[in-house]
Amino acid sequence: MKNATLVIMAAGIGSRFGGGIKQLEPVGPNGEIIMDYSIYDALEAGFNKVVFVIRKSLEKDFKEIIGKRIEKIVDVAYAYQELEDIPEIFKGRWKERIKPWGTGQAILCCKDIVKEPFLVINADDYYGKEAYKAIYQYLAAEQKTEVNSIDSEKLNICMAGFVLKNTLSSNGAVTRGICSIDEDHILTDIEETYDIAESAGCATAQRGGEKIELPLDSSVSMNMWGLPVEFLSELECGFTEFLSGLNEQELKKEYLLPQIVGEMVKDSKAKVKVLPSHDKWFGVTYKEDKEAVAEAIRNLISQGVYPCHLFEKQDK
């Protein structure tokens, strides 16, 4: 496969971070941010284009801190996620809403930019090398449209499946998509689960307003999806349906990738291969996470996983 794009969702406000722009916080020894390490791993795996999804208000700082540097080593494009970027028939509703519409809208913003299979990641998550390699190999070798037994087409999608215990924060509860998978590592269901925290050898969480326990070895989604370009058309149709179903008092509901993919699986529109990763996730969900992330990066450099100065020998 000649072309595969990395799409980085960086438009989030980051309210839990306690102020500032968490996606642009330096964590490396030379001012690197988490995105630097994500891009490094993606290029190493074979991806050859990067699309940043940001808000217009972030553009100046974003380009100064990372964009201009990355443009020197790989093709870069920008997509802009804004609250008002919705179909014309819906404009003027939800006047008191202050946030954009979630990760599904973020990816939909790329529909005129992305023309090839692509990988979606969060800007403030470190995923490790294993998942990038697995997803690139999947997109390169297996990204084809499949016909099922009743001659309807399914989209072939893949997802990095992380081990729950490797994705928890010691500084507060997290939200994860808990995955059900069959013996062939095909996703059968995904449930958005909130307030997950480790407790006495398991994890406790909230789902449907009730407290539940989860095994620490549960497979979870970290919003790391390998997608065919046709997925963008499904997103566009689905976004219109999503907005049509909202009333004017629903100011916080979001159009979210895990829910979108989960519905496509239930409707036999998609088949999702879960590619296991055993790398440890880390990120800056909370302000207190920053030092732990910086320490983790220092350890990876000392182990030889990354050079002290990223990209020194790479050129566009």
Tell me what you see in this structure.
The protein has helices at residues 34-45, 59-70, 103-108, 129-142, 231-244, 257-266, 289-302; strands at 5-9, 49-54, 75-80, 118-122, 125-126, 146-147, 153-163, 174-181, 187-199, 202-207, 210-214, 219-227, 270-277, 282-283. By secondary structure, the protein is α/β, with parallel strands linked by helices. It has one domain: Spore Coat Polysaccharide Biosynthesis Protein SpsA, Chain A. The strands form two sheets. Strands 1, 2, 3, 4, 6, 7, 8, 9, 10, 11, 12 and 13 form a twelve-stranded mixed beta sheet that branches. It has a two-stranded antiparallel sheet with strand order 5-14. Helix 1 crosses helix 4. Residues 143-151 have low confidence and may be disordered.
Mean pLDDT: 89
Treating each run of at least 4 consecutive H or I residues as one helix, how many helices?
A: 7
Q: How big is the Rg? A: 19 Å
Distance between the termini: 18 Å
Strand content: 25-35%
CATH C-level category: Alpha Beta
- The CATH architecture name reads Alpha-Beta Complex
Major sheet characteristics = 12 strands, mixed
Let me know the CATH homologous superfamily.
Spore Coat Polysaccharide Biosynthesis Protein SpsA, Chain A
List low-confidence stretches: 143-151
Please trace the helix and strand order, writing H or E for each element: EHEHEHEEHEEEEEEEHHEEH
The secondary-structure class comes to alpha/beta
In percent, how helical is the residue content?
Answer: 25-40%
**Fold-level CATH name:** Spore Coat Polysaccharide Biosynthesis Protein SpsA, Chain A
The outline comes out as: globular
* Structural domain count: 1
- The beta-strand count equals 14
